[in-house]
Design goal:
mainly alpha, 2 strands, Arc Repressor Mutant, subunit A, binds FE2/S2 (inorganic) cluster, about 80 residues, about 5% strand, 3 helices, globular
């Protein structure tokens, strides 16, 4: 899924966190949990709509979520 997005795609609009920042945090900083990913990058720590689909209460739904990126980078 993540290969369908540009590396500078903004996953978290509140904190302007881009896809490549999230991927780097998971792979380089060895993030082990979704919560840790949020703490390190700031993604998903405001409105939380970008964390996972069920938490997306926005009018315009996100195209990709932190949880999906985490699972894909971590577990393939
Ligand atoms: S879009 Fe990520 S916390 Fe609001």
């Amino acid at each position: 899924m993540i290969e369908n997005f540009e590396k500078d795609y903004e996953v978290c609009n509140c904190h302007k966190v881009k896809l490549n920042e999230i991927i780097d945090a998971i792979s380089i900083k060895k993030i082990e949990t979704l919560r840790e990913l949020q703490e390190v990058t700031g993604a998903g720590t405001h409105c939380r709509h970008c964390v996972f689909e069920e938490a997306d209460l926005g009018k315009v739904k996100k195209k990709i979520y932190c949880k999906d990126i985490f699972n894909e980078v971590k577990y393939g």
